[in-house]
Amino acid sequence: MPIRVAIADDSLLVREGIVHVLASVPEIEVVSISGDLDDLLAAIDEQDPDVVLTDIRMPPAFETEGIDIANRLHTTHPRAGVIVLSQYADPQYALSLLESGSARRGYLLKEKLGNRSELVEAIEQVAAGGSVIDPTVVEVLVDDRRHGDESPLNRLTRREYEVLAEVASGKSNAAIAATLSISKRAVERHIGAIFAKLELSDEGEASRRVQAALAFLADYGQPAPGP
């Protein structure tokens, strides 16, 4: 059966663009299209989608409606995945999205919506229970945290650093191996070393691994060490 997707954005152009991108993907069925928060909530109750693609800010308040919906669905529709679409590469938005749990959650920048394969992969990963964080957001966190002699990230080798960034973006070990052109076993060794050096718990669950990596990179919201 195809993945049932609900789309919500206050911009007609964005909504139509997403529908167009997904129209030729047989594995995905768009079951509703909404322009504001109330319409989206009604569509979720009526259609029970597998994944919700929602703008981070929508009428009527234009605040953090997308994140609020994701947090709400943890209780009302726990099996529904949510991918928040944003034009902001601010890591704090992504961290707020994951506060209630990282499974079935994604944060993508709108500039990536034209990339069909990337969008479809994100939808499939979130529908399967995983997490997806836009690599640009991870890059911001990494750049902020790597400065200064006191940063624990300086304990990592260059390769371990690359692997950590891929882990934080939500990739599986197999996907990391393909991206970095190394073996899956090598990825597993690197991840073990990373979590040991950073004193993080790798419980084997991909979504928790993403949350742990992002939380470390963000230093729980504290400023990174100065240069």
Q: Any overview of this molecule?
A:
By secondary structure, the chain is an alpha/beta fold. It folds into two domains: 3-133, Rossmann fold (3-Layer(aba) Sandwich), CATH 3.40.50.2300; 137-221, Rossmann fold (3-Layer(aba) Sandwich), CATH 3.40.50. It contains ten helices and six strands; from the N terminus they run βαβαβαβαβαβααααα. It has helices at 12-22, 37-47, 65-76, 91-97, 116-127, 135-145, 158-169, 173-180, 184-197, 206-218; strands spanning 3-8, 28-34, 51-55, 81-86, 105-109, 131-133. Strands 2-1-3-4-5-6 form a six-stranded parallel beta sheet, sandwiched between helices. Helix 6 crosses helix 7, helix 7 crosses helix 10 and helix 8 (173-180) crosses helix 9. It is globular. The model is unreliable at 220-227 (pLDDT under 50).
In short:
The protein is of the alpha/beta class and 227 residues long. Helices cover 49% and strands 14% of the residues. The protein folds into 2 domains: 3-133, Rossmann fold, CATH 3.40.50.2300; 137-221, 3-Layer(aba) Sandwich (Rossmann fold).
What attributes characterize this protein structure?
single chain, alpha/beta, Rossmann fold, 2 domains, about 50% helix, disordered C terminus
CATH class of the largest domain: Alpha Beta
Binned strand content: 5-15%
Question: What is the SS-derived class?
Answer: alpha/beta
**Helix-strand pattern:** EHEHEHEHEHEHHHHH
Q: What's the name of the CATH homologous superfamily of the largest domain? A: Response regulator
The largest β sheet comes out as:
6 strands, parallel
Global Rg: 18 Å
The fold-level CATH name of the largest domain is: Rossmann fold
- Helix percent band: 40-55%
Q: Please state the oligomeric state of the protein chains shown.
A: single chain
| Poorly predicted runs | 220-227
Architecture (CATH level 2) name of the largest domain: 3-Layer(aba) Sandwich
